[in-house]
Amino acid sequence: MASEHIVSAFDQELNELKNKVSEMGGLAESQLVNALEAMQRRDTDLASRTIESDARVDEMEHEIDAFVVQLLALRQPVASDLREIIVALKISSDLERIADYATNVAKRTMTLAQSPQVRPAHAIPRMGRLAISMIFDVLDSYSDRDTQKAIAVWRRDEELDEMYISLFRELLTYMMEDARSISSCTHLLFIAKNIERVGDHATNIAESIYYLVEGRPLLQSRPKGGDEEYDRVDAPPDR
Length: 239
Known about the structure:
By secondary structure, the chain is mainly alpha-helical. It has one domain: Methane Monooxygenase Hydroxylase, Chain G, domain 1. 82% of the residues lie in helices and 0% in strands. It has seven helices and no strands. Helix 4 runs parallel beside helix 6.
């Protein structure tokens, strides 16, 4: 009877961990939605609130870290239970980075809102919608343990990469044609890179879900769009 009680309590704790990760995922997704809406509307108030709300995502990552340490110390899990805990830890790290990239977008929006709007900005929301859909679907796949949906997200990262490269070229051309746009276009370039990196972390989560369900890593080469030269252009952290 005592053994059954321990197993039942552990199952409840694993479910609590899953719920914490899902809640954190919802917060990270909201961060990106709000950051992109603020950029599109040039809304500095919304951008400011988005920046402030990043602290809650950081708090949730710390809560999950502490809960994982507790489970590992007290339950000494093995096999699928151990995978459940390790994957939750990895996913929470990816979600924290997604929220950070969303915060970077909001910070650059604060600056962009003070400058005249430039033509290539219209392409950013399309990238953003794809990134948001990837986060939404990968969180669904985590909740449902749906590897097919996770793999579909994994494959969509290539489309996001191609969109980033296309926008990169457009922004570069625009800056060469009009030197006055260099500052604004540079901010847009880093916003686009932040969104592209969100897609990379959604892809990381998809791979973690596959490992969680199947018990083995997804060994296929990750689909990547474009050329290596564009991968070297990374967005510096906004602090």
